[in-house]
Amino acid sequence: MELCVIEGDGVGREVIPAALRVLRAVLPDVVVHNAHAGYDYFKTHGTPLPQETIDLALRYRAVLYGAADSPSFPVEGYYSPIIRLRRLLQTYASLRPTRYLPVATARTGVDLMVIRENTEDLYVVSEQTDESGHTSTAQKIITRGATERVSRLAYELARNEGREKVTIVHKANILPQSDGLFRRVALEIATEYPDVITDELLVDTAAYWMVKEPTRFDMILTSNMYGDILSDMAAAWGGGLGFVPALNLGDDAAIAEPVHGAAPDIAGKGIANPTAAILSMAMLLHHQWKLPELAQRIWDAVCVTLRHGDHTVDTFAEGAIGTEAFTDHVIANLI
Predict the structure, then answer these.
(1) Equal CATH topology for 1-93+238-335 and 111-236
(2) Tens of pLDDT, residues 196-251
(3) Which residues are 238's β-sheet partners?
(4) 141 — phi, psi (to 5°)?
(5) Would you tell me how many other CB atoms lie within 10 Å of the CB of residue 48?
(6) Of the options 1.10.10.10, 3.90.45.10, 3.40.718.10, 1.10.760.10, the CATH number for the domain spanning 111-236
(7) Domain boundaries of the chain, sorted by first residue
(8) Within the chain, what is the greatest distance between any pair of CA atoms?
(9) What's the rounded mean pLDDT across residues 11-16?
(10) Regarding the domain delimited by 1-93+238-335, which CATH topology (the fold level of the hierarchy) does it fall under?
């Protein structure tokens, strides 16, 4: 197995090495190819995603990605390297599971997955501001082809992973053309899977239920922007963003990516929570490299470590346990 590894910015430089330590403990022959991307790299080299990194990602089709500290204002020449990588590798589905973990901030009984289309919607990042500076517009793109493939992947995954219900989330009452197309195509694909229950919700209603009763959900299928928001909401029930993994998955490529961001306020302090990065790596083992037994070993080791330590976001922030020490415990608990 060969892996392209991009630490990126901020705490990516701490949690990604931790995930690699766990990976090597269960898969010692893995070959790692280190690469660069991110805002810091952009500031010194003029590009957020060098061609050498693109070449490695395209060659090995398996990427472990840390974080990019993207600014919330226009910077000439800068773009999101992870969005570009998702498109280049055609990892068209973002898998964001939230499962109960034995931490005080998690909720018992929650076991859901948000699957979002990962290559279009507002994330085509096509924006314009007029010369006056008073009006900005953004383009939202939904296509039949992209919706078909992510819907079919979601239903296949539901069937193979024992999920009973898929909830299609949209806002077709306000956007009958774009969201309406997503809804119609997803419901068409659903008819091919009569063994999986299908229902649908407007995105604002789905957000209400995510706050009120997250155990209502089994699998959510939605477009890019709604999925980004709903999966972050769901993460609160799994202990917080530092605990919840993610995988960008395509037909022949995958990018494991914890989505907690670069967290510059704690970067370099050795207190970043590596759980999301470790479990994202486990998802790559499961779905891309087809090694579910190794992925389960990692999951079990993380659960044992958390159960014995009763860790929360605060215990990392307060320095009760550090990134390295936590990783040591996970490795020691591998069975």
Answers:
(1) yes
(2) 999 999 999 999 999 999 999 999 999 999 999 999 999 999 999 999 999 999 99
(3) 106
(4) -120, 125
(5) 26
(6) 3.40.718.10
(7) 1-93+238-335, 111-236
(8) 63
(9) 95
(10) Isopropylmalate Dehydrogenase (3.40.718)
The two tokens of residue 134 are 């008073």
Confidence class of residue 104 from pLDDT cuts 50, 70 and 90?
A: confident
Torsion angles phi and psi, residue 188, rounded to 5: -60, -45
Query: DSSP letters of 225-260?
Result: HHHHHHHHHHHTTBT-TTT---EEE-SS-EEE---S
Average pLDDT, the chain: 93
> What is the DSSP track for 253-277?
-EEE---S---TTTTTSS----HHH
Q: Is 78 exposed, middle or buried (0-12, 13-18, 19+ CB in 10 A)?
A: middle
pLDDT of residue 332: 94
Work out the average pLDDT over 281-300.
97
| Entry pTM | 0.91
